[in-house]
Design a protein that fits this description.
Strand order of the largest sheet: 4-1-19
Largest sheet: 3 strands, mixed
Number of helices: 6
Distance between the termini: 35 Å
Bound molecules: delta-amino valeric acid
CATH topology: L-arginine/glycine Amidinotransferase, Chain A
Number of strands: 19
CATH architecture: 5-stranded Propeller
Order of helices and strands: EEEHEEEEEHEHEEHEEEHEEEHEE
Amino acid sequence: MAKIVNSWNDWDPLKRVIVGRCDNSMIPPEEPATSEKVPVDSEMRGMWGLRPLATVERGNECLENLVKILESRGVQVDRPTPLQWNQAIGTPDFRNDSMMTCMPPRDILLTVGNEIMASANSFRCRYFEYLAYWPLMKQYFDEDPEFKWTQAPRPRLTDASYKHNYYDEKISLEERLVRTANKDFVTTEVEPMWDAADVMRMGRDLFIQHGLTTNRTAMEWFQRYYPELRVHAVNFPGDPYPIHIDATFVPLRPGLIINNPVRQLPEEQRAIFEANDWQIVDAAQPAHDEPPALCYSSVWLSMNCLVLDPKTVIVEASEVYQQEQMDKLGMNVIPCDLRDAYPFGGGLHCSTADVYREGGCEDYFP
Ligand code: DAV
């Protein structure tokens, strides 16, 4: 029997990874946790249903580009099993008219050492998304005797989990920024809620973004669940829609992080990096002024790269400024045409979930 699951960070040599699939993807109906993410003037407001088939096929083509690159580099790639996401769902606590997608895996699966944990997402439409990964989890479980197959406590997602009317009125950008600065987000603290993409793994330390998709109770839950790790809450006051850390604060190798220049880590939270001689560099400007059509994310998916090892990184093919900067920072850059997968939930890092990276649990902040 082999060791199949092992990953402690985002930069050690990658050997096995999950890449999502766009099949059957939906634009989900509005619900208490999601409506705030769709800007009032977006073409997606008030619209839900199956995503147009041509965009699904094109998104899948982009993911195939990524799979080919990974395989040519000797990385083993696993794929989820999509469900019919247009089915209505219900629990004793809520009903929702549809699910969403199995993109991106990074939001759902958190790998810490030999454990992969399905997350506790706050979106009702994502409540059953983990099922797409269960066949893979069972396979890892059968083949790797040390693999820990885990599900975080499932949130109930009753109306008490959300602040209602949080974004009902037309909220200006300034007001959104004030709310971010005040750490006033759409979720309440009645239970732990978190997206795996809010968790940045750095060996003994987990840096977790407090924002629209992850609450404070989740941080407390993580600290008790992993007593041997140190959990740090981080937040980025320049972000009007703080969802996921991986287009904001992205490590490239031990000692080097790129930080979104409009979402700077506050001075007091920088101290731990500075004290340990880590360099925090402003990320390059995105090459685009707008995200692609029907996309929830910002143009900063430019910095959402996939590090293959401390010297090699995959960057989106059209993001020429980000590529140039990576090159100057001493990385070998592999471009990958992925932009048309962005509408399905994200860039290169989002679209993947770690299964195996070499290396163990190091202390980078002694
Ligand atoms: O900048 O819109 C996207 C992160 C997706 N995982 C952003 C964050």
